[in-house]
Design brief:
The protein has 288 residues and is of the alpha+beta class. Helix content is 39%, strand content 18%. It is built from 10 helices and 10 strands. Strand 5 and strand 6 form a beta hairpin. The chain is globular, with a radius of gyration of 23 Å. 33% of the residues are buried.
Length: 288
């Protein structure tokens, strides 16, 4: 039976305090998966993270050669555009319906690639249907980036993390740990025109609650960031007027020494890796 709290009005005696404490159940115990340094760094910051299943157009336990072949295809921007469009069709689609950004022959070839990967099946009339419907492309983008961070850069990674920070909504798309540093990536799979100021504000609230060593705002687009994305991010910086963004290379921008924004021009993962390298160097002591 749960012990009742000491009566109000009078100061409780030492015995009443001990009885109350002894009868009060302890809080929930969080058990982390073995070797999950990224999640452990969140726990050390006072959070109780949980991981939600990703919304994927393929089995969540995909591994081995099949996962490697899919990741190789996801490294191509045109393939990501096609798969994103196929997901948004929410049912049967022709190759040209999935995307208007590639030639018809290339679209047909990509549809066949989905079949070969086990993600789609053929239908009558030259149409296709995804075997594992998903709501949007976001989960796939998170899966791909997390896999590449783990395999190419040796990070411990967690995706789809709910960190339950008070008055801070949304998930942490990708968190990664290496060298005793915590990295947080916010992933956006839609074009810049769909980015809203409230999304950017929510990202900054998560950054301020989490206090990662390095944060990267990732836009999976080939469009330039200076027209809309950079001004939206600059408007949320605590320093106003904001310092001018610094172009590192291509569409890799530093808003501060520890906050970066990148797009997919030329190579999405290459741009992310460049931002990480730049951020880690900024965290190092000054050169002698």
């Amino acid at each position: 039976m749960t012990q009742q709290p000491p009566p109000s009005g009078n100061l409780p005696t030492a015995r009443e305090l001990e009885l109350y404490a002894a009868g009060t159940p302890s809080g929930p115990r969080l058990l982390l998966p073995a070797g999950s340094e990224a999640l452990a760094m969140l726990v050390r910051r006072g959070f109780q993270p949980t991981v939600a299943p990703l919304d994927l157009p393929f089995p969540a336990d995909l591994e081995g050669e099949a996962a490697e072949k899919l990741a190789e295809q996801l490294g191509h921007y045109s393939f990501r555009l096609f798969l994103r469009g196929a997901i948004l069709r929410h049912g049967s689609f022709s190759p040209t319906e999935a995307t208007r950004y590639v030639e018809a022959a290339q679209a047909a070839k990509t549809a066949e690639t989905l079949v070969e990967l086990g993600l789609a099946e053929r239908e009558d009339g030259g149409r296709y249907r995804l075997r594992y419907p998903a709501h949007n492309f976001g989960g796939t983008l998170e899966w791909y980036v997390a896999r590449e961070l783990r395999g190419r850069l040796g990070f411990d990674v967690a995706v789809g993390v709910k960190f339950h920070a008070p008055e801070v909504g949304g998930d942490l798309d990708v968190v990664a740990a290496a060298e005793g540093r915590l990295l947080y990536l916010e992933m956006k799979s839609s074009p810049p025109k769909h980015l809203a100021s409230d999304e950017v504000g929510a990202f900054f609230r998560r950054v301020r609650a989490l206090r990662p060593h390095l944060a990267i705002f990732v836009m999976d687009t080939a469009l330039r960031l200076s027209d809309k994305v950079l001004p939206l991010l600059q408007a949320e910086l605590s320093t106003q007027p904001p310092p001018p963004p610094r172009r590192v290379v291509r569409e890799v921008w530093a808003l501060t020494p520890h906050l970066y924004v990148v797009n997919a021009r030329q190579d999405l993962m290459g741009n992310i890796a460049t931002a990480i390298a730049e951020g880690l160097r900024a965290l190092s002591p000054p050169a002698p």
